[in-house]
Design a protein that fits this description.
Elements (H helix, E strand, L loop, with lengths): L1 H23 L11 E7 L4 E6 L2 E7 L21 E9 L7 E4 L4 H9 L9 E3 L23 E2 L2 H10 E10 L1
Parallel strand pairs: 1-8, 6-7
Antiparallel strand pairs: 1-2, 2-3, 4-5, 4-8, 5-6
Length: 175
């Protein structure tokens, strides 16, 4: 019985150690002069690829809406939109660290929601975690789909995107 408890204790501490290493291991940062003009989100792979011209600059692991399958149709459906949009705003004082605004809804999105008698919603952002103690463990967001339709990256990643993404950059969100 004592050896079983020792094994469990070892597994627990090894798991905690691996989780902490994963969370605090430094990631490659973008060079300061890089400008991103195109973002490609693949919802099924939970990735966002950043391009400068035709050159892939970096791939970001992301978290998306709680209901990941399908296109956002109305406010509250917890889906991340699909289609081609632009980065149309920036907020350095967001409740979620910083954010980049996605131009959802477009005309088609508004018409589809109207047919259902609903609001299409809005405020779709690329954002980090709220500042505070939880932001110290922000890589763990990647394991959960918990946004209301936004695209979430770590706070360090949203900092570099905030600086590198050019105004009106294209963002394509694929299923």
């Amino acid at each position: 019985m004592k050896s079983f408890f020792t094994i469990l204790l070892f597994i627990f501490f090894a798991t905690v150690a691996v989780a902490l290493i994963y969370n605090f291991w430094p990631e490659t940062r973008l060079a300061k002069q890089v400008k991103i003009d195109y973002l490609l989100v693949d919802k099924s792979k939970k990735t966002m690829k950043a391009y400068s011209g035709k050159n892939l600059i970096k791939t970001y692991p992301i978290s998306i809406g709680k209901s990941p399958i399908g296109h956002k149709v109305f406010e509250g459906d917890n889906k991340t939109p699909e289609g081609i949009y632009t980065i149309n705003s920036r907020n350095p004082n967001s409740a979620y660290h910083k954010n980049l605004g996605v131009s959802y809804p477009n005309k088609t999105d508004r018409e589809k929601a109207k047919q259902l008698g609903k609001s299409p919603g809005g405020d779709i952002k690329i954002h980090g975690l709220p500042d505070g103690i939880l932001s110290k463990f922000d890589k763990f967001h990647r394991f959960f789909g918990w946004t209301n339709g936004c695209i979430m990256v770590t706070n360090a990643e949203v900092d570099e995107l905030y600086e590198a993404v050019v105004p009106n950059a294209k963002i394509e969100i694929r299923p």
